[in-house]
């Protein structure tokens, strides 16, 4: 089994909001390239994400289903991704001060991935899940509460201003970097 942990600087509720939005999975799960459909009762037990893995035109359609769910705390998934096989993935959220300790445990349960020696398999899963946790943290830490995400409200204008300021700063930095060359 491969285990990764990351301290995310937001509440477990905010992290759970990201996990509960199945359409966001390709943004943070390394290897998921697109979402084809999300069952309406996601993330309840039995619900499925219908995703694709790979790069076009070699996309493989598959699914991930919820085996267990404790909202705001833990979700256990059966993730299919042929040709590699299938894995059980447990994501646990633990309050840690003002943040959340997020743990991903992944164990291949079928397919060719089970034939790879554990040390090699563990190394690649640790790299992949470390990046997935990094992406999940980026989304959860920057996600506005639902009430603040209504189009046309002050929060929307403020986010636009902040985005414009960041873009301006990045462009200025690029110009100064190119002047140094």
Describe the structure.
The protein has 181 residues and is of the alpha+beta class. The protein folds into two domains: 2-143, Alpha-D-Glucose-1,6-Bisphosphate, Chain A, domain 4 (2-Layer Sandwich), CATH 3.30.530.20; 152-181. 36% of the residues lie in helices and 37% in strands. It is built from four helices and seven strands, in the order E-H-H-E-E-E-E-E-E-H-H. Strands 1-7-6-5-4-3-2 form a seven-stranded antiparallel beta sheet. Helix 1 crosses helix 3. The radius of gyration is 19 Å and the shape is globular. The termini are far apart.
Number of strands: 7
Q: Give the helix/strand class.
A: alpha+beta
Order of helices and strands: EHHEEEEEEHH
The CATH topology annotation of the largest domain reads as Alpha-D-Glucose-1,6-Bisphosphate, Chain A, domain 4
Number of domains: 2
Radius of gyration: 19 Å
CATH 2nd-level architecture of the largest domain: 2-Layer Sandwich
Provide mean pLDDT, rounded: 85
Strand order of the largest sheet: 1-7-6-5-4-3-2
Oligomer: single chain
Which parts are unreliable, with pLDDT below 50 for 5 consecutive residues or more? 153-166
- The proportion of strand residues reads 35-45%
Number of helices: 4
* Share of helix, binned: 25-40%
Largest sheet: 7 strands, antiparallel
Shape: globular
CATH class of the largest domain: Alpha Beta
What is the CA-CA span between the terminal residues? 47 Å
Quick overview:
The protein is of the alpha+beta class. Helix content is 36%, strand content 37%. A seven-stranded antiparallel β-sheet has the order 1-7-6-5-4-3-2.
């Amino acid at each position: 089994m491969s285990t990764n942990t990351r301290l995310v600087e937001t509440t477990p509720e905010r992290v759970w909001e990201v996990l509960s939005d199945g359409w966001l999975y390709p943004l943070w799960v390394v290897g998921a390239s697109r979402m084809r459909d999300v069952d309406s009762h996601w993330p309840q037990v039995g619900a499925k994400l219908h995703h694709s893995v790979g790069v076009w035109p070699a996309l493989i359609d598959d699914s991930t289903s919820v085996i267990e769910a404790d909202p705001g705390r833990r979700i256990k998934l059966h993730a299919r991704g042929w040709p590699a096989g299938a894995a059980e993935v447990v994501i646990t959220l633990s309050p840690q001060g003002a943040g959340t300790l997020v743990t991903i445990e992944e164990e291949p349960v079928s397919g060719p991935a089970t034939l790879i020696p554990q040390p090699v398999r563990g190394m690649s899963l640790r790299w992949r899940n470390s990046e997935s946790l990094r992406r999940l943290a980026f989304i959860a830490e920057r996600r506005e509460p639902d009430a603040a995400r209504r189009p046309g409200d002050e929060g929307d204008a403020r986010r636009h201003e902040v985005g414009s300021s960041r873009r301006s700063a990045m462009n200025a930095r690029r110009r100064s970097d190119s002047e140094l060359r």
